[in-house]
Amino acid sequence: MDDLTVKLTERTARKNRKRNERKREIAASAMEALKQLGYANTTLRDIAAKSDLSLGMLHYYFEDKIELITYCVENYKAEFIHDLSLSIEHAKDRDELVASFSEALVASIIDDEAIHRLWYDIRTQAMFDPLFRPVVARIEKSLIGLVNAAVMKAGTDAGGRIDILYAMLDGVFRFVMQSQVTGRAMTRKQMQQLFRELLDQFL
After folding, report:
1. 3-class DSSP string for 54-93
2. Helices (H) and strands (E) in the chain, counts
3. What is the spatial distance between Cα 69 and Cα 66, in angstroms, rounded to a whole number?
4. Is residue 86 very low, low, confident or very high in pLDDT (cuts 50, 70, 90)?
């Protein structure tokens, strides 16, 4: 590879890094608006107004609302998965795994409630709008992988039905999330106990 090609390649890489950094910054700002509005009740114009960005800036980096929202959700769910992965990785035995995994789930519900609400919003939309299906499939594949990692760490025989275990955990997680926003909020201790009981059954 000659010097000119190397320089052009490096320049392109720098531009891509800067663009990706800017997209992450915009996504972080846009998330604050999306947390308040949700998918169904917002437009790019709303997001621009609430995040102090011009509509033109949003359109420069994101083609439409769907691209922006899926980018936001995928990035923030990646952080969620990373945090849960650490709770699994650092557990020394099965009991510690159940305790740390449960606490990580509860902490995320408390700290990132709006993000998870947006995730469930677009997952429901994916049943009607095929544009959401690829990102939903990618995120759910990662979440199923997370459950598989927990099962392997615990040394449990899941009988090849990791998908069912994921569906059980997701169902409880969504139930708790819904309880928090419908006037039936659980205490932190109640949430921890619920997840511990569930995880204790299949880990």
Report:
1. CHHHHHHHCCCHHHHHHHHHHHHHHHHHHHHHHHHHCCCC
2. 9, 0
3. 5
4. very high
How far is residue 183's CA from residue 114's CA, in Å, rounded to a whole number? 16
- Weakest mean pLDDT among 44-53, 73-82, 156-165: 44-53
Alpha-carbon distances, residue 49 vs 30, 44, 69, 141, 161 (angstroms): 10, 9, 16, 34, 46
pLDDT of 137 above 70: yes
> Cα 76 from chain centroid?
5
| Structure-token pair, residue 58 | 């949003």
Distance, CA of 54 to CA of 26 (rounded, Å) = 11
Indicate if the pLDDT at residue 162 is higher than 70.
Answer: yes
Helices (H), 126-187: 133-154, 162-181
Handedness of CA 175, 107, 191, 202 (dihedral sign): positive
Q: Which amino acid is present at 30?
A: A
Contact 185/179 with Cβ under 8 angstroms?
yes
Tell me the C-alpha distance between 100 and 107, whole Å. Answer: 10
pLDDT tens sequence across 1-21: 666 676 667 777 777 788 788
Give 15-18's long-range contacts (Cβ < 8 A, gap of 24+): none
In angstroms, the CA 122 to CA 70 distance is: 8
